[in-house]
Amino acid sequence: MKKQVLISGASFAGLTLAYWLNKFGYAVTVVELGKDLRTTGSPIDVRGEALNIAREMGIYDQIKSAEFVHTDEIVDAGDKTLVKFAINTLPEYLGDIEIHRGDLLEIIYNTLPKDEVKVIFGNSISALIQHENGVEVHLEKGERKTYDLVFGADGTHSTVRKLAFGPEEEFKKFLGVYFAFAATDSIQTGRAESTGIVYRELGKQAVNYQFKNGVNSILVFRAPKMDWNYRDRERPKLILKEYFGGNTNWKIPEILNSMLGANDLYFDEACQIDMPTWTMGRVGLIGDAAYAPSFFTGMGTSLAMQGATLLAKELHANENHEIAFAKYNEGFKPLVKSVQARVNRSLNVQLPETEADLKASFEAWGNQQQSSKTE
Ligand SMILES: Cc1cc2nc3c(=O)[nH]c(=O)nc-3n(C[C@H](O)[C@H](O)[C@H](O)COP(=O)(O)OP(=O)(O)OC[C@H]3O[C@@H](n4cnc5c(N)ncnc54)[C@H](O)[C@@H]3O)c2cc1C
Question: Which of 187, 206, 363, 366 is most buried by a 10 A CB count?
């Protein structure tokens, strides 16, 4: 009989794991909290080994054809262009693919044979009870079933991690930064389609991405740890008002206004998840749930796809899940450590804290563009 697995979270980590485990002969069920795929979010990068995984999954060409190629500008408070460049052409990013979060999610989701992989939307695991031969799972809406293995791919604020490993605070490293993302289509950027416009001041960054006849805005800012629960939808709006209200620079009033009225505002703290082990008995974690590197590394999605693929291949190669889990923990840790260590460089460029660092952050892009032109 096929081994039964349950994956919590239908995003990059969860859907990649579902793809591979289904291919390797497991009976896969995915449970997703959202009523549908959660396709909002700023563009994300697919890099390094994740591109080879996309090739193995047969989706590289689709990803490439949906690539978000854009021109970027850093502007001053009066919207005057200070630096103009195309990030996709800079040497550091050559070969990487930047793509809209929703486009990549749909491409991966469409690889799943829907008559084989069961996806339950609008539900969540409420209890996990580990037995010697299986994990008894209770869902919030009442179902109960025992699975051979259960995986948490449910993001930074993972429920599976909380239930099987302990409270989030034990594993979370707060980076002193919060960010907000929303579709802000009413904003007029005055730029051509496919332009990313960045405005920076000390400890704050605002971005407008114009693409597909729409605009998405991001506000990022340094702040001390605040009393905020990620399920609270109203408190983020008060926090944004506190940090950006009254700021008349660049397009900040329009961005803030749109965000305060948005019903898809995505607000979170920038943090990393650092755990001594990603497996416990018959439960495993992947993606941000296990090793969120934060968006400052540009590696969250790639790590999610890579970790899910490695774990699935170890389970395929080793009949005993304990051996597979040990190999996953050992094999993936060095990459995670090195990616997580990169966070400070990008944090300092994007959110400089001194005037000298602010000036240097513009010049850094200008210089990179110059050197890429001369290669
Ligand atoms: C709506 C949304 C918008 C995002 N926007 C950005 C952005 O603008 N910039 C950025 O850098 N990163 C963003 N991220 C995070 C980014 O997608 C991840 O950092 C990264 O791609 C790693 O992917 P992941 O699959 O591990 O986790 P995620 O992409 O975070 O996916 C986790 C999935 O688990 C689901 N989930 C959560 N709790 C439960 C539960 N209890 N039961 C079942 N399912 C659950 C979520 O709805 C989500 O589908 C966003 C994530 C989401 C969910």
Answer: 206
Distance CA 109, CA 114 (A): 9
Place 372 in a pLDDT band, splitting at 50, 70 and 90. very low
pLDDT in tens, 222-236: 999 998 888 888 999
Cα separation, 298 vs 315, in Å, equals 28
Ligand 1 within 6 A of 350 CB? no
pTM over cut 0.70: yes
Task: State if residue 295 touches ligand 1 by the CB under 6 angstroms criterion.
Answer: yes
277 burial type by CB count under 10 A (0-12 exposed, 13-18 middle, 19+ buried): middle
**Contacts with 243 (C-beta within 8 Å, 6 or more apart), sequence order:** 204, 219, 221, 223
Q: What is the CA radius of gyration of the chain?
A: 21
Q: Is residue 10 within 6 Å of ligand 1 at its C-beta?
A: yes
